[in-house]
UniProtKB/TrEMBL annotation:
UniProt KW keywords: Cell inner membrane, Cell membrane, Membrane, Methylation, Transmembrane, Transmembrane helix
PROSITE patterns membership: PROKAR_NTER_METHYL
Single GO cellular component term: plasma membrane
Keyword Membrane applies: yes
Name recorded for this polypeptide: Type II secretion system core protein G
InterPro entries: Bac_GSPG_pilin, N_methyl_site, Pilin-like, T2SS_protein-GspG_C, Type2_sec_GspG
Amino acid sequence: MTLRQSPAPPRTPPDTPLHRDERGFTLLELLVVIAILGLLVALVAPAALRQLGGARVSVAKQSVAQLGTVLDLYKLDVGSYPSSEDGLKALVEKPGDAEGWAGPYTKDSRVPLDPWNHPYLYANPSTRPNHEYDLCSGGPKNIQGSPGQDGMICNP
């Protein structure tokens, strides 16, 4: 039995349609695609960042409301809201004069921070009419000072 070798397939010349399809993308085509992608990123990124900023404000409002509920629980146990000196730390560590303290009142036993990782501002008594205490986030610009300033997120 003799083995016969099959003839090699014929080579196609470089300018036939089969050879042209194997080439790939030109530099111009790649630059056009990169430019289109860059344009899409430039248009979408600002809108995405605005949404993120709005979400943080919403989270801050909800957190201030939840901390208000936690402060109400503290008041039920102790009989009064924490002093300005004790601040929100009274929710995780028993102040010396807090009879009936049943804390810690937060899940992770830490003083919570606002969505921008700044401490909440707390004052008792309140400087605003019809409020027992002030609990505020300084917002994205970390505004310090009197509650109710533009950009601050405070308890209602």
